[in-house]
Design a protein that fits this description.
The protein has two domains: about 110 residues, no CATH class; about 180 residues, 3-Layer(aba) Sandwich (Rossmann fold), CATH 3.40.50.2000. It is about 40% helix and about 15% strand. The strands form two sheets. Strands 7-8-6-5-9-10-11 form a seven-stranded parallel sheet, with helices on both faces. A four-stranded parallel sheet has the order 1-2-3-4, sandwiched between helices.
Length: about 325
C-alpha cells in the first residue's frame, strides 16, 4: 500500500500491480509512476470538488492525463455521482457503492474460556472498561460506584492496557470499598466480585464478547489509537472520552449515528453507564454501531473482487457478476 506522500521512487521500486487511490488525484508524478506497472488503477471515495481541486494544475492537459490513469471510479455518494460521470466523459462507468470505511479483524479469543465466562455471568449485568490507562482507573471506579446505586449486582470488568497494572488496580478498587478479583491471580468470576480486573490485554477479545456495554479506554487521557472498531463490530454499545486522537472521524460517525455516547469525565461516564444499563437502549446502540462498521462492506467486496480477478489475469469484472 502506497500513500500520496510517498516518493515516486518507492512506486518505481515496488512496481505495484493494483492501485487503490483514495481522495483527489493529486501528486501526478507518483500516479504517473504507479501507472507504468499497475494492471488496474481504482479511484475510491471520489468527490467532484476534490477532483477539481486536485487537478487544477497550470500545465495544459495535465488534468485529463491524470484522470486517464484510472480504470474505475467509485463515487463517495449519490451527490458526487453525476459530476464524476461528467468529469470522466463516459470513458469509465462510475459506480456508487458508498464510502470505503476503515475495517479490521476482531481480536481472537479462547472458545472454551469464553463459554465458561458466559455461564458465570449469565445472571449478572456487566459493563466493560477496555484497555484502560492507569490514569483512567479512578474515573472508571467512580463511575462504577455511581452505577451500583442503580444496579447493585452490576459487575465492572476493567481491562488494563498494561499487564503489570493489575495488582495496583485491584488495591485501588479495594481501597474504595469495592470487592475486587484479579484475573492473573486466578480469582473466579463466580465469587461475586463488584470489580474484576482483567490484566492480560491479549484476552480483550473475550471480554468484548461478553459485555453489551463498553467504555473505550485511553480516551480520557492523552494516548494513542483507542480501539473503537473491535467492540463495535462485536455488538457492544460504546462510550468514549474526548481524546479519540487519530480515530476522530470514526468516533464522530459513531456518535452522529447513535452508536456511541461521548463523555468528558468521571461524572458523565457514570451517567452514560446508567443510561445504557437499560437493555433496549444498549441493544439499539449496538445495532447502530454494527451498521457503521459494516457500511463499507459493499465497496470493499467490490475492490477485492476486481483486484483478485485482475491479478488472476482477467479484466475488471462486471459489477453484477
Amino acid at each position: 500500500m502506497l500513500f500520496a506522500g510517498d516518493d515516486a521512487r518507492i512506486a518505481a521500486h515496488w512496481k505495484p500491480d493494483v492501485c487503490i487511490w483514495t481522495g483527489g488525484p493529486s501528486h501526478p508524478s507518483l500516479l504517473s509512476q504507479i501507472a507504468r506497472t499497475s494492471k488496474v488503477m481504482l479511484l475510491v471515495d471520489a468527490e467532484i470538488n476534490t477532483l477539481s481541486r486536485g487537478t487544477s494544475l497550470p500545465i495544459p492537459g495535465l488534468r485529463d492525463t491524470i484522470l486517464g490513469y484510472f480504470d474505475k471510479v467509485f463515487a463517495l455518494d449519490d451527490v458526487n455521482l453525476t459530476g464524476l460521470q461528467a468529469a470522466f466523459s463516459d470513458r469509465i462507468y462510475v459506480e456508487n457503492l458508498g464510502a470505503l470505511r476503515e475495517g479490521g479483524y476482531p481480536p481472537t479469543y479462547n472458545e472454551s474460556e469464553l463459554e465458561d465466562v458466559r455461564q458465570c455471568l449469565s445472571a449478572r449485568p456487566v459493563w466493560l472498561a477496555a484497555l484502560c490507562a492507569d490514569a483512567e482507573f479512578d474515573a472508571v471506579l467512580q463511575a462504577h460506584e455511581h452505577a451500583l446505586r442503580t444496579s447493585h449486582r452490576l459487575l465492572l470488568i476493567i481491562s488494563t492496557a498494561n499487564e503489570g497494572d493489575g495488582h495496583a488496580l485491584k488495591a485501588l478498587a479495594e481501597a474504595r470499598g469495592l470487592s475486587a478479583g484479579l484475573r492473573s491471580d486466578g480469582d473466579d468470576l463466580e465469587q461475586g466480585f463488584q470489580v474484576y480486573v482483567a490484566d492480560d490485554p491479549e484476552e480483550i477479545g473475550m471480554w468484548y464478547r461478553v459485555s453489551p456495554l463498553c467504555f473505550i479506554g485511553k480516551t480520557l487521557v492523552p494516548s494513542h489509537s483507542p480501539q473503537l472498531l473491535a467492540p463495535a463490530a462485536l455488538g457492544s454499545a460504546l462510550i468514549f472520552g474526548p481524546l479519540v486522537h487519530n480515530t476522530s472521524a470514526l468516533a464522530d460517525q459513531l456518535e452522529n449515528q447513535g452508536a456511541a455516547l461521548r463523555i468528558s469525565d468521571a461524572k458523565t461516564l457514570a451517567e452514560a453507564v446508567v443510561i445504557l444499563l437499560a437493555p433496549d437502549k444498549a441493544a439499539r446502540m449496538a445495532h447502530n454501531a454494527w451498521e457503521v462498521v459494516t457500511e463499507g462492506a459493499p465497496v470493499l467486496d467490490r475492490l477485492t473482487n476486481i483486484a483478485g480477478t485482475v491479478l488472476d489475469g482477467g479484466g475488471i469484472p462486471d459489477a453484477h457478476t
